[in-house]
Specification:
Layout: E1 3-7, E2 13-17, E3 20-25, E4 29-32, E5 35-38, H1 40-43, E6 53-54, H2 76-88, E7 97-102, H3 108-121, E8 125-130, H4 131-136, E9 144-150, E10 155-162, E11 165-175, H5 179-198, H6 206-221, E12 228-235, E13 238-245, H7 246-253, H8 257-266, E14 274-278, H9 288-292, E15 298-302, H10 307-314, H11 316-319, E16 328-329, E17 331-333, E18 351-354, E19 357-360, E20 365-367, E21 383-388, E22 391-396, E23 403-404, E24 407-408, E25 412-415, E26 420-423, E27 426-431, H12 435-438
Parallel strand pairs: 1-7, 7-8, 8-16, 9-14, 14-15
Antiparallel strand pairs: 1-2, 2-3, 4-5, 4-6, 9-10, 10-11, 11-17, 12-13, 18-19, 18-27, 20-21, 21-22, 22-25, 23-24, 23-26, 26-27
Length: 439
């Protein structure tokens, strides 16, 4: 008996089986002639095939006729069905029960349509739970809780009451601007910097424009507190690199921050202590947490990307109905939170040791295949090593090209100090270099 969780957010629908994330797929559809591309494939072709692209079918889930519709694509529900089926079929044989995590702005009509599409796909849906409620479970929270999330076309703020039971009180779309607009703004800022610094215009060619948009989401989410950041594009075997400042990137989002801060302030009464849960989809946004910290009486909790899935899996006994009815849960038990402080997390590795050289991993190291001169960053890496949520991750880009401790890496794994990476018959060891070891 395996449980699949579908976390519905059009910025990236997460699919897990028994708590393990198996896929993240953005809510994009692209029509190329008679061929419909959906999800990741559509997102990777949206700039190459821009004549017919739709990324609103999850945020506007309805059966209203589309302009230029066809027999196969009549409305947004048809696109949502195609996406849902594409996500479901690869895991179908391994799953007995399914739970949906849904955004708070979904109406009863949206939920009814989602259940209808699921039945048509053959999904065994056993429960639906509110995104904000499931994100708040098992956390040390004040009685007043707010959840800030971003979607492709909006930013939402949900108010939750915590009395030992988490109850959703109010949901507002505080802005009709989301990741789609912000990514477009950031792309244009980066393109302008390329033109100014190198006279190369990545927007002049569809291939380089698509490459820029493909790299941008992960690049933004990996930004740290540095004042400048490097961005690279390789076009026709020529590498173009720029340094772009936080101040430049802030131009895209600073108009939004006062409205976000104002909306949060409006949900706090007097000197009421409030827990503010910030979605992982805001990760890397320059200056956002600095702006939020200006609000008195709040504790900011940055959620990691698997928080909702982990909580839905843990609380499936409350979410899945024994009667067979599918309930929309807008309240859950808060769950247990340990009284004692969390044990310190083991330190993550900071460097790759190759022969007698230690190479810093920094905020991310895309490792090239050619190690004749040691580990070097590459635009076509065999794998990428990067820190995330206090851990060091390895993500493989080429099947069978990387081994860790003698085992072939197929997708993604956590690394620890002392682990050995093997690429092209060269061995590198993960080591920790700290102020203590440096003395």
């Amino acid at each position: 008996m395996s449980l699949a969780v579908f976390n519905i957010n059009d910025a990236g629908i997460q699919v897990s089986v028994d708590g393990d994330l198996v896929r993240t797929s953005p809510g994009y559809a692209v029509l190329d002639g008679n061929r419909l591309m959906i999800g990741e494939q559509a997102s990777l072709n949206a700039k190459l095939l821009p004549r017919w692209t739709n990324n609103r079918f999850w945020s506007q889930l309805n059966t209203n006729p589309l302009p230029n519709n066809s027999n196969d694509i009549r409305h947004h529900a048809d696109l949502a069905f195609a996406h849902l089926e594409d996500l479901w079929l690869p895991i179908k044989k391994d799953v007995s029960d399914t739970v949906f995590i849904v955004p708070g702005y979904y109406s009863n009509e949206n939920l009814g349509l989602l259940l209808g599409l699921s039945k048509e796909c053959g999904l065994p849906v056993k429960g639906i739970v509110d995104q904000s409620i499931v994100s708040a479970c098992n956390l040390p929270l004040h009685s007043n809780v707010l959840h800030l999330d971003i979607h492709l076309h909006s930013i939402s703020l949900t108010r939750i009451s915590n009395t030992g039971t988490l109850i959703r009180k109010d949901v507002k779309n505080i802005l009709e601007t989301g990741l789609y607009t912000l990514m477009d703004r950031w792309a244009n800022i980066i393109a302008g910097q390329f033109i100014q610094s190198t006279r190369f215009d990545p927007m002049h060619n569809a291939d380089s424009e698509q490459q820029l948009f493909n790299k941008l989401p992960a690049w933004i989410s990996s930004l740290d507190g540095d004042t400048t950041h490097s961005f690279q594009l390789t076009v026709e075997q020529t590498e173009h690199t720029i340094a772009i400042s936080n101040d430049n990137l802030l131009k895209a989002c600073t108009p939004l921050y006062p409205q976000i801060v104002g909306a949060v302030r409006n949900e706090i009464s007097g000197n009421e202590q409030t827990s503010l849960l910030v979605s992982h989809r805001f990760s890397g946004f320059p200056g956002l947490n600095d702006s939020l910290r200006l609000i008195p009486d709040i504790d900011i909790i940055d959620l990691n990307e698997l928080k909702s899935i982990a909580s839905a899996t843990l609380h499936q006994g409350e979410i899945v109905s024994e009667s067979g009815a599918v309930n929309h849960m807008i309240q859950l038990s808060a769950g247990e939170v340990a009284d004692q402080p969390e044990a310190p997390q083991p330190a993550k590795a900071t460097h790759l040791l190759w022969r007698h050289r230690a190479i810093a991993i920094g905020k991310g190291f895309p490792l090239g295949h050619d190690l004749s001169n040691g580990p070097t960053p590459s635009n076509d890496p065999v794998c990428t090593v990067y820190p995330r949520d206090g851990q060091l991750m390895l993500e493989s880009s080429r099947a069978g090209a990387v081994r860790v401790n003698g085992q072939t890496v197929t997708e993604m794994m956590t690394l620890e100090p002392g682990d050995q990476l093997e690429v092209a018959d060269e061995i590198m060891t993960l080591i920790l270099v700290s102020s203590e070891t440096a003395r």
